[in-house]
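Standup notes, protein team

Yesterday: finished cleaning the Polytolypa hystricis set.
Today: Cell surface spherulin 4-like protein structure.
Blockers: none.

Input for Cell surface spherulin 4-like protein:
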Amino acid sequence: MVSKPTVFVPLYVYPAPGAWSPLIKIIHEYRDVEFTVVVNPGSGPGPDVLPDSNYLREIPTLTVEPNVHVLGYVATNYANRPFETVQAEVARYADWPSVGSNPALALDGIFFDETPQAYNPSAAKFLEELSILVKCQQGFGPSNIVVHNPGTVPEPPYLTLADGNVVFEGPYDLFCARWNADIFAGIPPESRSKLCCIIHSVPRDVSGDTLKSLVSDVRSIADEVFITHLSQDYYASFGSGWSEFVNLMASSS
């Protein structure tokens, strides 16, 4: 059985009026596609108890959509940040709906960036405790999702500590090199539903059937995918191939 595709969106686009419209439009057009969207007000939730008024206006336009999960960005610096600092950022996201008196500010979980690839018992304990923290937070829900981003294939013990893992983040040329070197060959097929690939700097001539082939290859590794032709500010805007990519994801299901 072919699993359902999910478009992964690192939404590091500041929500000025209309800035998120290309995403909202696509979400409405492709109801059979799921979207995982990561918001990042200030390299995390920001220093204040609530994000600014633009975020307060735009985040509910995502959380109300039935085919969207919204995650808050938190960096771990490869499990080297003080646990209390990371804990506080998780709690700040979880408090948004109560502090803002708006249930539509409730996110679905946390995207932990810069997680380690090589196994280390203390790092594993750090991440395990963070997962427990997210799963127990009242302000997330109902899924309380945890996603790790090592940016490469992590050692197997880490795969069980999160609901999702980013097994590739980088430019197109690097993805092709790793694909040709069979770096992804050891990933069990049953893990695909928990994995994500993020590819930027795709050449402009990779379109049509060539882009379709790329989406097919990436989908053989991971159910959650983000592909953009942008080579600068690739998480801060939507490229010209955005609609084509989502359409190909929809047809890959």
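Follow-up from PR in the comments: The longest strand covers residues 68-75.
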